[in-house]
Amino acid sequence: MNKPATQIIGVASGKGGVGKTTVSVNLAVKLASLGKKVMIFDADLGLANAQLALGIRAPFNFSHVISGEKTLSEVIVEGPSGVKLVPGASGIQRMAALGPHETAGIIQVFSEIEDDLDYLIVDVAAGLSDAVMAFMSACQHRIVVVKNEPYSIADAYSTIKVMIQDYKLDHIHLLPNGVESQREGERLYTSINTVVQNFLDGQIKYLHSISADSMVTQAMKASQPLVNHSPASVAARDFSALAKKVMLLEQNVPLNGNIQFFVERVAAQMASKVS
Questions:
Q1: Among 242, 267, 265, which Cα is nearest to 254's?
Q2: How many CB atoms lie within 10 A of CB 225?
Q3: Domain ranges of the chain
Q4: Under CATH, which architecture does the 7-274 domain have?
Q5: pTM for the full predicted model
């Protein structure tokens, strides 16, 4: 029986400070605790904070792979619950300049990893850069994290607008973060989705909401994922529910079925912006 293809999920936000990396890390750790083999690709070109959120140190990062100094296997580090991390760095932008031989080598390494991976979580930078959209275009499902604040809502809508109108993407899921209740999150989703339907002729989906919880900050200070630091907290229970819903997402999304395709598509997208 063939192993199901690795599910590739991009996590984005219109602006920084809405908890995007916190979502990526806790989702990954919870999926791993449910028996899934998970890797995070920290594709944040500027900050690369996933290793801090996981409480691990990474001596090397993806830029060392691009430069040929290290193999992908040599830069991967392991975090809580066996979650693997490909640490990010600004050097990711050099993917656009890779020759066919270099690109083939990186694709080969990703393909070897795929045999032992259920989920690849791609934590992209905040904003609307070409690199962000290249990564999101190459994913199967796209999660947009938003807070119930005017600027965050406006930026999340702008991100969704670019995805739908400029990149023709679908399978976009809204994840309200820091809400007072699931009802508040659902209302926020409904209001944004209504605007998307009326003005973009598109549609976004709803996954779950993450409750406001002071333990999130405490876990960050301790450099631990919330789901390990305070598993009984309200937000940790929300991440548990989120992970279970992610496991139910459609798997047979066309075009983007494996890691090899993911790397090829990112390289092609970024190269097209240079040419």
A1: 265
A2: 29
A3: 7-274
A4: 3-Layer(aba) Sandwich (3.40)
A5: 0.91
